[in-house]
């Protein structure tokens, strides 16, 4: 009961913790020497992420905003709330506002071709964060975690712990980053029939969708002992449902993100592991790439940020209260 209450408190307090961390980072890292002084009116930079209902994207946005505002410019951030049509409208709006660059995390990795072409025609460089898109020739710069390796690391850890397993996958198949994580996991176990996938659920990476879906799945009384989730919020949603039904014992639960809440759950032996991403690094590098490109730099292509599996064996090496 104590662990269940802690999980609810951690979920409810995530936004407050993130806002404090962002403020402390700004005080510690931004100095007068970091600020670029420029005559003329501020530049406008546009940003749209698949959802701001995920603390990972909030941290990316906060870190990018700190860099951009330190340069005297403006970041216009819009939230499509996982709605592709809304994100298309937002990109059109940002182009009409005369933004100098776009930072985008797509709702659907193959759904923005027209909008990305429009941005390219307008001479607006696009910086893609956390994931790539099918039409990568329309993107100037992509910055993401090694999502495929995140799935591989989770599968390898599971195989060390279990000689066989019955696995539930929590997916988000329109997000290329999530697709790559799950594919890395599947490819790693592909040649080992003792590791069986018994269910797949589309939860869009949202705790509030993963929890009722797992609750409904538990009604089916299907045997399973591993949950591989595309991210930490969906992993915590599954954890919440299993705790409510007293079905968590003996189940390995994996996530991806390295949220403060997930790390605390690992520390308390509730969650098995998470693969850390660094939204702090991603937000900073995305904003810095904007300025290098606008200054005439030749930044282009794809940059992969290495990821690390966090588990009970190395949890003491990580700060439980913040992101990497």
Please give a structural write-up.
The chain is of the alpha/beta class. The chain contains ten helices and twelve strands. The longest helix is centred in the N-terminal third of the chain and has 28 residues, at 2-29. The two termini are 30 Å apart.
The end-to-end span amounts to 30 Å
Weakly predicted, low-confidence segments: 1-5, 9-38
Q: Based on helices, strands and strand pairing, what is the structural class?
A: alpha/beta
Q: Which band does the percent of strand residues land in?
A: 15-25%
- Order of secondary-structure elements: HEHEHEHEEHEHEHEHEHEHEE
If you average the pLDDT, what whole number results?
A: 88
Shape: elongated
Largest sheet strand order: 2-1-3-4-5-11
The biggest beta sheet reads: 6 strands, parallel
> So how many helices?
10
Rg from C-alpha positions? Answer: 20 Å
- Tally of strands: 12
Helix content: 40-55%
